[in-house]
Amino acid sequence: MADPRLRKFLVAFAALIAATVSAEAPAATIPSASVEVTAEGGTPILTFGTVNGSGCNGLTGGCESSTASAASNLDVSTSGSNSGPNPANAAGSADITAFYEIVGPAGNIPVTLYISGSASTSASGPDTEALAYIMYSSGALYTCSSAGSIAGPTGPCGSEPNSGSLDSVLITNAYTNELFDLSVQVSGSTSGGPGGSFSALVDPVLTLDSTWLADHPGYSLEFSSNVSPVPLPAAAWLLLSGLGGLGAVARKKRKRAAQG
């Protein structure tokens, strides 16, 4: 006869899997993410992808090269540079506004939801700036770099740092069955003399706390249908940890049988 504790664990684990699977269907009310990607000299797009651009100032020999990209995992980046005696201006930008909802049987339940990620920028040469930010429902992370005549405390960046990170920051106003948005944006430009370059990068991550999920079966973190974050949802981590526990129980039973 099966060990009663093992049978109880299997029943509870099967219920968790069933609740997880039933909650995986996307919420029909979640809008698609909006996307815009541009690069100087390239054709802008309103979808995920990369835009490359370049151009030169006629016979003067001054040229620029720019690129920007936005990915469905919410990573955005841009970079650019110019060169030559009378260079063309380089510029790029990428931004995403995505939507998410903690979907489940009941609404207005406080959720333990964390945001992590980083934003970084760099700028060099005359009249160059770069911006990167993550904006979520209860806060924001801004980073900025500037160089040349526009640099300094009175320039576009003010006292903003050139890089920063969010390390499992609690989103304080998250509730079940409510729609929220997350915005990420990067931009940069360089003009004036030659030798300017910029870069900006953002990569956010949202994580539903596994302990909260264990106490609230039947809920899942759902995103805009055209967004596909890379990290496993908390339900998947529970599934993996449950499989590990099942293996440990089986090993202990085999050990006791061998000793008996």
How would you characterize the overall build of this protein?
Helix 1 (4-22) runs antiparallel to helix 3 (234-259). With 260 residues, this protein is α+β, with helices and mostly antiparallel strands. The longest helix is centred in the last third of the chain and has 26 residues, at 234-259. Helices cover 20% and strands 42% of the residues. Mean pLDDT is 83; it is low at 15-28 and 232-255. A hairpin with a 5-residue loop joins strand 3 and strand 4 (76-83). The chain has one domain. The strands form two sheets. Strands 1, 5, 7, 8, 10 and 12 form a six-stranded antiparallel sheet that branches. A six-stranded antiparallel sheet has the order 2-3-4-11-6-9. The chain starts with a helix and ends with a helix.
